[in-house]
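Hey,
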Amino acid sequence: MNQQNVKQTTIKCSDGELLAATVYEPTITVKGAILMAPATGIKRQFYGNFANYLASNGYGVITFDNRGIGGSSTVPVAKSASSLQCWGEKDMPAVLECLKEVFPNTNYHLVGHSAGGQLIGLMHNAMDISSMFNFACSSGQLKNMKLAYLIQAHFFMNFFIPFSNAMFGHTKSQWLGMGEPLPKDVAKQWQQWCNGQGYVKTAFGKTVHQHYYNELTLPSLWVNAVDDDIANNANVADMMSVFPKLNGQTLTLTPSDYGLSDIGHMKFFSSKSQTLWPLALNWLDKH
């Protein structure tokens, strides 16, 4: 795609919070429009090559930074009141409404990376989404991880997050190669949800008083990789169980089958993994 098809914009949430976003417009007839929902602490630029690929195949795409992350970090991170919950309740719905305005009269899809797929059930307008394609989306439940990685995960979740929040007022996740610095409530909920069963389900009736997980029936494909220590098959199944009526399918990738040395939790969206991208395109074309 040519650069003129990519433009920067700002999206206003219902509570007035402003989100930095990028719109990818196809030069051919629009087949559908995609909300590209990011993983925890991952900036929208990470998904740029993948979004360009989808746009070149006829899909309008909006990538965005959740509040407190990247271009949507409007205050010092230690002063940010952002949480995982408000990402799902406020940020993602606002981006979907923008997507509908920019690309009217078409089908709307969610492509979720990790948290991006987990949080759909918090969106008040989730029923407007025709299908969902998730990569590395799981509950991240610690007890389902293999021992070698479990030790690392326990350290990050149950020692590093509380320590960093207490010392700095936020979580310096970038020190451990875990994306952008995280607002303290984002990291705190991440810790709490990964220590329980069903991720966000642990907050039902506590901080989450209204959700749509029980109502969603949209077709969805949940893709993970055999070398992903977080989104392993048990944790994918655990997350899917939070959606009792969901029409969900699963697909587990082996890197060597696609000429890749690794995929893990992040590399599906890498330009080096373009051999995987038709999996998403084929799904979208069918729905």
